[in-house]
Write a structure and sequence with these properties.
The chain is of the alpha/beta class and about 500 residues long. The chain contains 20 helices and 15 strands. The strands form 4 sheets. Strands 3-2-1-6-5-4 form a 6-stranded antiparallel sheet, sandwiched between helices. A 5-stranded parallel sheet has the order 8-9-12-7-13. Strands 10-11 form a two-stranded antiparallel ribbon. The termini are far apart.
């Protein structure tokens, strides 16, 4: 017949086992319950769970309970150090009811936290007979020390903890794989998440809502790295063609011969390597949208054929005389001064006017500082997943540095910067030194630790707007045009940021 204590222990085991078998995926919560239950049922004054880092050959305190639990978690042991190290090395359980006289006892931690350890029970956590960690119970309540019965029960709890960890890791791996597959599916469809908070970009999205309702061609202008492709995606996603294909091609990435075949396809035998008929991007995009990136790099000879597609909706494959009709909306983008190219005869004026029915200019990142924290946080979440590190965010100095930097490479440079910082930095915070922003330009006092995010943003905006006002002889209309914002919005910023306009 079971004793009262045995019934309590069995009920606790059943409860925890039910959670494990139900694929409970919050390992930390489950491990906490297991260790806390073990300490309570074995009447221990304190408890801890240490996990083994094989690469570093260290034991770190994953959980620690008792009056000094929070302080204990700050420590790390070598894998062969102390009683926990002995248990790890020998993969054996141990009862020590006179800890002070045991040579294996690590005395440094109790001294530093002011907690005396008199009795200890330590058992290994095993996965496939391999020790992955240790559960320790300290200071048995009452005069008697830990018993063999306590040891046997704790070993059962340790097995449950190991099982919970295995399940949680399996679920995490499965979840990561699912997310990866979801990303692959999303990438296959070609859509990315657009992150924006600045008024100027939110205004662009309102324009896109109106533009998306039409079938007119759109020419997206902006510096390299501002995200022109993402705005092209938004036009397609918000249009009536969103169920049809969104096909993209970089006109600068292929030589002229290959580019023509990629755009319009070819028939078998059209050239040496044409061993079979091939559909081009226009044919693949039929009913949907085609995005021609870096249109300014398209050779003049192909510009005439593209103009015909826009005007007549027909084209011929390379090596064929048969016309193919398509229904495709054309979006194009360039980081070049296309008007200047037209004047120099490097780009057909008739094609430019057909593409430029609805022009859309995307401002550089330096003109929309409100987006920097949002984008940095988005990229941080992305690369935390890839690097498997546990960053909590950016230090205030790091954020100030990002807000002060002019980002000549725009959003693409910001993403590369965050990826690099995630790779080389140390959690929990990414510091300014991890960003490697050489030549970053800061406002006076921007690096002071007492400046919060809002103040840093306002300081950057005031500095940048003042600089542009000076360059435009304090003409607010010209400055608003240079910043690509409304004249009324500039006036409001000047007032809100206390920018002093010099008198005539």
């Amino acid at each position: 017949m079971l004793s009262t204590v045995d019934v309590r222990k069995f009920n606790t085991l059943i409860e925890i086992n039910t959670l494990i078998n139900s694929h409970y995926d919050d390992a930390r919560v489950l491990l906490t319950q297991i260790v806390d239950s073990a300490a309570r049922l074995c009447e221990a004054g304190a408890s801890s769970l240490l996990l083994l880092d094989k690469q570093k050959k260290e034991l770190h305190f994953e959980l620690a309970f008792g009056t000094k639990g929070a302080e204990v978690k700050k420590f790390t042991l070598k894998s062969n150090e102390g009683i926990a190290g002995w248990v790890t090395k020998h993969n054996k359980s141990i009862i020590i009811n006179d800890v002070k006289s045991d040579k294996r006892h690590q005395t440094d931690i109790p001294k530093r936290i002011g907690y005396a350890c008199e009795t200890m029970l330590a058992v290994p956590m095993r996965i496939k007979d391999e020790c992955i960690g240790v559960i320790e119970l300290l200071n048995k309540k009452g005069k008697n020390g830990f018993t063999q019965d306590d040891l046997e029960w704790l070993e059962i709890f340790a097995n449950q903890a190991a099982l919970a960890l295995v399940n949680a890791r399996s679920i995490e791996q499965a979840r990561n794989r699912i997310e990866l597959l979801q990303d692959e599916i999303k990438n296959e469809r070609g859509y990315h998440e657009l992150v924006a908070k600045s008024p100027v970009i939110l205004e662009k999205l309102e324009i896109i809502d109106r533009v998306a309702r039409t079938d007119s061609s759109v020419l997206i202008l902006g510096e390299s790295g501002v995200g022109k492709e993402l705005f092209a995606e938004q036009i397609h996603i918000r249009s009536k063609r969103n169920k049809a294909p969104f096909v993209r091609i970089n006109c600068a990435a292929l030589p002229e011969g290959l580019l023509e075949s990629e755009l319009f396809g070819h028939v078998k035998g059209a050239f040496t390597s044409a061993v079979a008929n091939r559909r081009g991007r226009f044919e693949l995009a039929n009913g949907g949208t085609i995005f021609l990136d870096e249109i300014g790099d398209m050779p003049l000879s192909l510009q005439a054929k593209l103009l015909r597609v826009i005007q007549e909706r027909t084209f011929e494959k390379v090596g064929s005389e048969t016309s193919i009709m398509v229904d495709v909306r054309i979006l194009a983008a360039t980081n070049k001064d296309i008007e200047d190219m037209v004047e120099r005869g490097e780009f057909r004026s008739d094609l430019y006017y057909r593409l430029n029915v609805l022009p859309l200019y995307i401002p550089p990142l330096r003109q929309r500082p409100e987006d920097i924290p949002e984008l940095a946080a988005f990229f941080l979440r992305k690369y935390i997943k890839e690097t498997k590190k546990n960053y909590e965010g950016f230090s205030s100095a790091a954020m100030n540095a990002m807000l002060s930097y002019l980002w000549p490479g725009n959003v693409r440079e910001l993403e590369n910067c965050v990826e690099r910082a995630c790779t080389i930095g140390k959690d929990p915070w990414i510091g300014e030194e991890d960003l490697f922003l050489k030549g970053s330009r800061k406002d006076e006092g921007a690096g002071e630790g007492n400046r919060n995010l809002k103040e840093a943003l306002n300081a950057f905006k005031a500095h940048y707007i003042t600089k542009n006002l000076e360059e435009n002889n304090w003409n607010q209309t010209n400055t608003a045009r240079a910043l690509d914002i409304q004249r009324t919005y500039l006036s409001r910023l000047i007032k809100d940021l206390n920018i002093i306009i010099p008198k005539e």
